[in-house]
Amino acid sequence: MIEARELTKRYGHKAAVSGLDFRVEPGRVTGFLGPNGAGKSTTMRMILGLDLPSSGSVTVNGRRYQGMVWPLYEIGALLDARAVHPGRSAYNHLHSLAAANGIPRSRVDVVLEQVGLTAVARKRVGGFSLGMSQRLGIAGALLGDPGILLFDEPVNGLDPDGILWIRTLMRSLAAEGRTVLVSSHLMSEMALTADHLLVIGEGRLLADMSLDELIARDATDRVEVRAVDHHRLAGELRTLGGEVTLEPDGTLLVVGVDSATIGELAAAQGHVLHQLRDVTSSLEEAYFRLTEDSVVYRAPVPA
Amino acid sequence: MNAHTVQTVPAERRYGLRARLRATARSEWVKLWSVRSAPAVLEATAVVIVVGALVLSSGYRSGWASLSASERAAFDPTYTSLRGIELAQLFVGALGVLAVTSEYGTGLIRATLAATPQRTQVLVVKGLVLGAVVWVVSTASSFGAFALGQRLFTGPMPHAALGDPGVLRAVLGGGLYLTLIVLFGTALGALSRSTPLGLAALFGVLLVLPLMVNLLPGSLADRILPYLPGEAGAQVWHVMPPSPRSLGPWQGFALFALYVVVSAGAVLRLTRRRDV
């Protein structure tokens, strides 16, 4: 489990991350979502003890990362797939990391096999494609068979096969009971991978809830109506308790009255309708609205 | 649901600074030998020291007849055979700088410190591994260069034996000096965290600084020069002091060691607080 309390990072006067409170629980994929520059990578570096918080704290299994002696057995991370020495072979790169935590060499072969790099294990990583580098980075995260995994933008620059592979891997890691935190700036990707979402914008936590909750909470259903006499229809819908907005082109956006009711009303009142359409706002829209407004939505913290 | 229970570290290695140090050293050892540059630089170091002896010693041998009496009196056969060190120090120093800056340059340092959050330990062990390897290579090369050089000093030329006063110390001093140089480079690399900056600082201190001091008027240059890191440290592999103001061999070596310790101390203090 990862737990942040009032986690804050300031560079000069600018706060990259401010007052983050969250818990990342085991057994599910937690998506860490936010636009580029929202503070995701900074937060991940603070979790790993690489950047020191200006105030607040973050712990891994209840302890500060800097105090951990053999961290790779507890937490593995992929931060930047290109952060390798180009002249070193994949095998030696992993071997040096394994050696640093007393992880047996046999694990190097196991994780290379797991990510499908066995055939190129002795090749210099400078010649690897981005997809191969991502796999190598993931192999490094899996070395200690840790209960917690951190992936920073793991699908960036990958082809569809690679994306599917990573998505499947993350889901299976979570299904094994591990804690999986994966960052992305793509809502569409998270919608397919994550069970739970932490949304941040400008360094602040905007949402901490399950995917379904986020949709239910933020994605309101609307009905789009185009009628010849839209002014009269708008008035009638308002008396029914609907919330009606008139668009410049005369389209009515109705919230609170469903399309069936609107159709029946129109028939009863003799309206001529040109269009009657249900609009379900997508998760993408919900996400945009969240990050745009920077309003703090927060699910009740489980006791 | 939780088939994978929270991993715990195997009990037998949950404690123990010794196990931790050994793991860090092993990791640094693997890193050192798994890229081409380090073995190449170490080979170049050995070659430069030995070939330096060959070139300089045969040069003195063929030119001996034309040397003046005072030049002959100042001839130090041990120092002459070891002078390849003056070029080798640049290789060794760069090796130290790059051992750190290449990790920062690629971003690998994050993986390194995520695996070993004990930052000062990582740097100290990296320095110790480099220092040990450089000591072995440069000590062996110094003995080789000394033996080769003395074989070339024949006839009327003075030549040195390891039993002569100060000679064994000077030959061993070659390895000790280069060991401090690699540590100095490592410290400069960790301080600058950038290859061009680190190399500029290293070459600045070893090459440019003495030249600049030499531009100072009159005796001021003579008075300052012996206290520069390179000048001071080099006394340990000289048998005859190059100038009357030169520090003694161990005095100079101790001063250079102090420079290295101070820069390493600054680095370790900074490293604990800096973001990676």
TrEMBL record, chain A:
One of its GO terms (molecular function) is ATP binding. Gene3D superfamilies: P-loop containing nucleotide triphosphate hydrolases. The keyword Transport applies. The keyword Nucleotide-binding applies. InterPro entries: AAA+_ATPase, ABC_transporter-like_ATP-bd, ABC_transporter-like_CS, P-loop_NTPase. Residues 2-227 form the ABC transporter domain. It comes from the Bacteria. SUPFAM superfamilies: P-loop containing nucleoside triphosphate hydrolases. Keywords: ATP-binding, Nucleotide-binding, Transport. Belongs to the ABC transporter superfamily. This is ATP-binding cassette domain-containing protein. It comes from Microtetraspora fusca.
